[in-house]
Each structure stands twice: as structure tokens, then as C-alpha cells.
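Archive transcription. Copying these from loose printouts into the bound notebook so they stop getting lost. Printout 1 of 2:
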Amino acid sequence: MAPGFGSADLFRMIGSFALVLAIMAALLWALRRLQSRMITQNSGRRMQIIESLSIGPRQKIALIRVGEQEVMVGITASQITALAQLPQHTASPNSHASSLQNELSQLSASLSATGDPHVQ
């Protein structure tokens, strides 16, 4: 061993390291438990974000379910705007993606028809 570094110091370091690992494991367990509790509490909420798509810096489009109705909204740093209301139906997650893609292409077509310079 190096001079000035005794076996008591080594045991103290190993003990401290084990204590830090135990605290990290306890925090991980607590966070997982808290997360599962929050998921079960959120299942009763009436509003859910089904899907969101980033379209630029600090800009996104989101498909939101409010009760039984689905609404597509545009979100920027300063405002939220309703873009479209989707028909009520129970659909699979794959059809949500295709309906979001259809709505986006319709929105892009309508914006390019109006001559919006931001649409390519």
C-alpha cells in the first residue's frame, strides 16, 4: 500500500461507495414507484396528448383527445391554435398517425394555395 493510505481508509472508501450506491438504488426505486402511481392517476383524466410532431424550433403540432373528441393544435412559444377537429371514432394508434399525416398534408395544401411564403 502507498504510504499514508492504510487499510482503514480503504474500508472507509468502500463503505462510502456502497452507501452512495444504496442511496441511488433507493432513489431509483422511489422514482419508479412514483411514476407508476402518476400513470394510474392520469388514466382518469379527460385530456390526453395522443401524438405530437415538432415542425421547427419551439413549434409543434399536437393531436389532443379531450373526452371523446380529438383536436389538432399548433403550439408555438407564444400561443396555441386549434387547427382541426377530427371526427369521433375509436381508432388504432396507427390510424392516428395516418390521420395526423392526412391533416398535415391538407393544412399544407391549403396554406400553399393561399400563398403563405413559409410553406414550401
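Printout 2 of 2:
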Amino acid sequence: MATNLMNVFKNTDLKNMGKSAADVVSLAFKPNKKTGAKIARAVLSDGTTLIKSVTASGVVSETIHKLPEIASVAQRNEIIKDLAKQKINQETIAAMLDVSQSTVSNVLRKNNSNIFKE
């Protein structure tokens, strides 16, 4: 079943964030090759990114992840670590942040090696 990206984020979702459809700069789906699920991303004019997941059968998760505007690599890396602590898998984190899975893996591996040095 195809899911229309425009129907994933509702006006009420945007209103809850104090935004409207006019504040949406871009919309995109990022597929998960293993599960067939998709990550829906809406980037707003203030740099905030809203994330929802859609299963392979078209079920839309009503949980919204609100990511701040990412201004630096260090900030992005901290967000990757935070999402990993929430037990979100690397492929999903990569889709949420529009980076490669290997980037997520490298950040987490570097983080783990630094823990052992302390």
C-alpha cells in the first residue's frame, strides 16, 4: 500500500509545533531496505526536522521526533549518540539525519573507543 508523503504530517502536527504548512521547506521518505519501512522527514523553515515512521504496510507512527537544527558535526554526533541510547538502530538514525549508516557506525564506534580510554 502506497502512503502519500503529504498525508503523513497533518496540519495538527504542525500546529502543535507552532508552525503551518507554509513553514515546511522539504519533505522526504528514506526507506529501510531491510524492513521496507520508511522514515518521513519534514524540514521546517527554522531548521527543525520532524520525523515519523511508516511501516511497510502503510501504518503511520503518530510519534514525532523533533530534531533541532544541526549546526555542526559535533552537534550531529551528540544527536546520533542520544538516539542510539534510545535503542534506535543505526539505519533508522541515518535516515532520520540524512546521513549514511556508516557515518552513524563510525560515530558510535569512536564514542565507544573513547569510553575505554577514560
